């Protein structure tokens, strides 16, 4: 296991996150970043320190379960819409996908931190005619919502091989895993995927079922990353 080191002190690069539930402090975790996934680790570090005003501070934890907790991350990678981002890997996820192909860090234990790179959820599409260079051409339009932007992340609480095809592991929790366990135990929206009504609605393409599914595991309370940054820079 290769760890990312600070150039200033040659110590492992650590970031911290302080969590709050309904404005009440919940505790701190520290995350050690891996050096053999340099783009993903540098990306996570930049988001943790809030590089150029873009970062995880005040982001929500919007999914909890016995297997992992997750955050949807940030909505965009630049402070102003349309600006070029300085975040490692940029808006395109090709470099992160390449690191996934070479990754030696499957989700085999608790405390692993990974960012969502690929959305494997089946999406509906439709063909649409658009004008291009004086001709009408057919293009495929995605009806399933936005693709990942490489900022959503998960922290495992047990082996989670279901994340291997979609997430890139960038580090591990070295302090405060009990805080993550407390978050995972918070009251949340029950995942009723086995309900016959839900299954029927999904089978018939009822949009209400898709909306309901997005809320599965969402904590009833407001859970946020109240503060985050570089441990060494405190």
UniProtKB/TrEMBL annotation:
GO terms for molecular function: peptidyl-prolyl cis-trans isomerase activity. Residues 16-230 form the PPIase cyclophilin-type domain. Pfam families: Pro_isomerase (PF00160). InterPro entries: Cyclophilin-like_dom_sf (IPR029000), Cyclophilin-type_PPIase_dom (IPR002130), CYP26-2-like (IPR044185). It comes from the Eukaryota. One of its GO terms (cellular component) is chloroplast. This is PPIase cyclophilin-type domain-containing protein. It comes from Apatococcus lobatus.
